[in-house]
Amino acid sequence: MLEIALEHKNMFSLVKQRESSASCTSDLEWERLETVVGFLKVFVEVTKTFTKRSGSSCLTANIYFPKICDVHLWLIEWTRSPDGFVSSLAVTMRKRFEEFWNRNHCVPAIATILDPRFKMKLVEYYYPLLYDSAASEFIEDIYEYVKVLYNEHSYINETTTSSPGQDSKSDLEKYLKEPLFPHNSDFDILNWWKVHTPKYPILSMMARNVLAVPMSNVSSEEDAFESSRKRRISETWCSLRPSTVQALMCAQDWIRSELESS
User: Fold this and answer.
1) CA-CA-CA-CA torsion sign (194, 205, 172, 145)
2) 24 lies in the same domain as 139
3) Which domain holds residue 22?
4) Cβ-count burial of 50 within 10 angstroms (0-12 exposed, 13-18 middle, 19+ buried)?
5) For residue range 23-78, what is the model confidence (pLDDT) as tens digits?
């Protein structure tokens, strides 16, 4: 609707010329409308990316980090606009976005590290743009989160007990030192980790758990904006520990399986 109005803004000017008493949109208001449409286009494109399917499968968690960072960078740029209307609007949007970002940025960051095409590269690229001089501290924090998560999985995996002649390097160290996997359009990250399970037994288990984390509550079959009005992630759900969410999801699968087999 707004785009259509912009396409026909000259018609509104003609109305003003013919009827001087008519109330029409000013040039400044048109400029601001164009800015708002630009805002909305960014969010629409990102939402479409988040709600589409890849082949017959849902998107995995590694897809989200660069898109979310791009939105963050756009918001930072918009807050620096010399137009007070634009900057104040962007400040409000950025405040709400960063409330989400500060609570949730670790999971998509870890997921993208587990993408063998990028590993630490995307984190090392985006964080300096987002955090300037504090970037190295945030990068180190993410790496520490990855190591903590890896250690938790290593305790679960009974095969991690060192044996004579076993490589002393962890899966994580070996993985990060290996060259990046080449980019290709049909890359299947879940299949990559399945194939490389013998090489990275602990890290592959961690990757399966992280990449399966649901990053959106909107299905690909429904309109994203209509769904957002109907469904919300509650504060209770957001505050659950990852282990609790995993247990609930497993229980749901078991119950569904029991019902289908009965």
Assistant:
1) positive
2) no
3) 1-39
4) middle
5) 666 777 777 777 777 777 887 887 777 776 554 456 788 989 999 999 999 999 98
